[in-house]
Amino acid sequence: MLMNLETQRLILRNLRENDLADFLEYRSDPEVCEFQSYEPFSEAEAERYIKNLENGEFGEAGKWIQLGIELKAENKLIGDIGLKPEGHETRIVEFGISLSRNYQKRGFAAEALTEVFDLLFGKVGIHRITATVDASNFGCIRMLENMKFRREAEFIKSFWQSGMWRDEYLYAILEEEWKSK
Question: Which residues make Cβ contacts (< 8 Å) with residue 87, sequence separation at least 6?
Answer without folding.
Answer: 61, 62
